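Narrative of activities, Objective 1.

The group set out to show that a structural description can be obtained from nothing but a protein's sequence at a throughput compatible with the screening campaign. Below is one input-output pair from the validation batch, recorded exactly as produced.
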Amino acid sequence: DKGYDGFSPNFDVFKEDGRFKQIPMLGASNLLAKGYGYSAEGDTHTVTMTLAGHILIGDAHFTEMYSLDFAKDSALMSHMGEGNWKIARTDRPIKLIDRELEIGGLENPPTVVFSAQPGPATMVSLAPIAGEDYRLIVAQGEILDTEELPDVPMPYFHFRPDTGVRACMDAWLKHGGTHHQVLFLGDHTRRWKMLCDILGITYVKV
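Output recorded for this entry:
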């Protein structure tokens, strides 16, 4: 109603507000799919990246590296339940579940569950350095043909960086990669490099 293009809530605010029955996981996912910027936990830098990605590329997906799988040379990507279902793989249905959630102190939130379409993908992270200086960390890689994980009640998939997960994560940490990430289907490294050149942001590919 107020013309905002994105938002980043802390989960506790929904109970404190008093008007919500659940944490709006489905609402966040639907807004992502409609082109709004989103990140959880007050992460304004990642909100900025989802919104910029919607404009620059389209269909930005909010996520985080939930766990590393060295056997698959990949990272399992997932968050609390939010995700852009427009990147879902086309050979499986998108599920909507009554999901038990142990945080927030509210009712079970309806949550979408899907795995991302296998193929090339680009993951980005905007890292604040000092003052007005920022660094954009970019990893090009592949979304793997991820098996169904019935015990994961939220969007998930394996992402394998082209440089390998160990080398990528070492460089990610070295350059200040952030807790949350934004992911896009396809190779979009050139567009991000061009944007960094225009805005004077340091570009680092890991």
